């Protein structure tokens, strides 16, 4: 797949459809109110594309002053990027796109009255609500692991301070130590990321702590991109990374913080640094608002991304049940654009378009070795199904992989500019 094709995919979900939609929006009407909760990739994209219609009052609610991208944060762990380079504020969304950005936390949703309550007691009425709550952790499924334990055995699955804790631990670890990654069962945010993390930390160890080892304690027997990762581990880091699937060790059932030990169903593994990634579910506000089902995730209409449990509330990103779409940043971006057009059609009478749903991402195996995928999806039978797929193959030349790593940097810049303006 070429650079042009990737850029075209990005635009298809946004600018082209936006240009087609805008002229059909009735003028002179009062402006419907859309509130967006969550300033991550899905929420920021939805807010931007809704605001660019110029016919809606769009408010974005986000308690943090900025967003640190999870994608590319494994490069920070390997010392290949700064955390600042992964951090984006919301100023451009407010100043260039006219979005009202409220730095506060949404605490409750009254779906009947169509009102959002904020920390401190203020309330916001909406005509449509977009919720991009991200993930929450099922701490109760790993004995001894909670917020306090995560400060010692970080998950680093929300980029930012947790990434910094893990980076400092890796830097201070003695050569010859064991770094253990406890990878969760499906579904979870960014399926290739635990294995990219192992690859890039191995790169760091190879430079500075060559006697060290990495153990991946997996709650699964297979993982995304497995052949590509295992091929790269044998080429770049022979003998350094050991993957232990669930069929040998079972899932992680507990931790012992004082000894930095991970306890699986069959063995206990003591580590110098332990990265425990817990099982996941939809963000807590979605659960409290009655937007999740028995799976812990949010069912949505695959065309409009409106909740099937509460009317006038739309959900995008990692929190939803997305059929074949992975829980990735690009998926969230694509869903948010489709959601924005659906809301515009509902509130302003602009044309309705079938959703154009995509996922595209790059995964690093080493600084000059990356692979990529690009997948198109379509609604089918009440779910979202894969239509076409491109993914890198084992055996590609070193030059192809270097080119992928180079393209990844441009992809990141273009993607984050599309989201945060």
TrEMBL record:
Top EC class for this record: oxidoreductase
Entry's EC annotation: 1.8.2.3
N-terminal signal peptide: none
Top-level taxon of origin: Bacteria
Any GO MF annotation of the entry: sulfide dehydrogenase activity
Claim: Oxidoreductase is one of the keywords in the record: yes
Domain FAD/NAD(P)-binding positions: 33-145
Keywords, ordered alphabetically: FAD, Flavoprotein, Oxidoreductase, Plasmid
Pfam families reported in the protein's UniProt record: FCSD-flav_bind (PF09242), FCSD_central (PF21706), Pyr_redox_2 (PF07992)
Residues of the Sulfide dehydrogenase [flavocytochrome c] flavoprotein chain central domain: 165-278
InterPro entries: FAD/NAD-bd_sf, FAD/NAD-binding_dom, FAD/NAD-linked_Rdtase_dimer_sf, FCSD_central, FlavoCytC_S_DH_flav-bd, FlavoCytC_S_DH_flav-bd_sf, SQRD
Residue span, Flavocytochrome c sulphide dehydrogenase flavin-binding domain: 355-420
Descriptive protein name: Sulfide-cytochrome-c reductase (Flavocytochrome c) protein
Origin organism lineage: Bacteria, Pseudomonadati, Pseudomonadota, Alphaproteobacteria, Hyphomicrobiales
